[in-house]
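From the pipeline queue, job 12 of 40. The input is one protein chain; the requested action is below.

Action: predict structure.
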Amino acid sequence: MTRRDLGLDDIESLAVGAWILGTGGGGNPYLPLLNMRALYREGCRVQLMDPSDLADGDWVGTVANMGAPLVGQERLTDSLTLARAVTVMEKHIGRRFVALMGMEIGGANGVRPFMAAAHLKLPVVDADTMGRAYPELQMTSVAVGGLAPYPLTGVDVRGFESIIVHKVPTWKWAERVLRKVCVEYGSVAATSQPPRTGAEVKQWCIHGTVTKAMAIGHAVRDAQRRHEDPVAAILGIEHGKLLYKGKVVDVERRATEGFLRGIARFDGLDDWRGSELTINFQNEWIIARRDGEPIAMSPDLICVLDSVSGEAVGSETIRYGQRVTVIALPPSSIFLSSRGLEHVGPRAFGYDIEFRSVFAT
């Protein structure tokens, strides 16, 4: 089984790239990055493995935090709490995992599997189930594939409580049940999502996403060191599209039902001077409208970036006066299918809009 040893520089690049792929959500990876720096100082190390190296009968644990990103800045989840969510799952199913995997590569959840892996001495699979960040459990490639939505475990960040959701009828029910628990925990919880077999990971998960995040992060950090345009560096390796440049003029947001919801408004700069952009968000950026007309929407990745550093701006950190550049990146093809759009298209978020990709023209 081939495993790649990751240095701390790889983790630094992963944090930058995962924040960009988070499309505004997934949580700011800065605090998980601080956890990883501390773990490396203590002598812990992590490894990355290719999905193809999994045997079909291997069991893989799926790790993520759940909740409102704004709350996650105040109610911090440490690496031991994430590891506990995994061990609670192993005990429940009566099996040991051979590896861990992220539910989403976006934001802090792109780094968190490594926090648990450092304690459990397991490799992390170079894959996830979103290829970005989405706010709900049914918005995954494994849900599109119709795989089992259970069992799930949730652990309170204070370490007082843990819950096992043994069985639910659908992915939406999994979301409803675990979200209610998450809200009672204070709108943030460490979770182990339904475990996957090696065969399921190889067929239904989105491969190469950790490597992709590290490559994006490396491109940004390299451009910063060279005093070059980091946004151009991202577009150069990801074949994305530039949508808008402007400054933040207003942000409305509220933490409700375990989500951060709201709208951000921008006034145009440079070639976009005189135009207004608005982006609705539910943890992640969902619909972007320029002068009232939709120009980008889920599942296309809408990424709001600091115009100077090229680093991501999250829905919980965006603030008045920031100069930003908005780009779009292409989604995984599984979400562009008719079934995929049922899970993550505009109507899945309550917007009566027919999906039209930025990359269709």
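Job complete. DSSP finds eleven helices and 17 strands in the chain.
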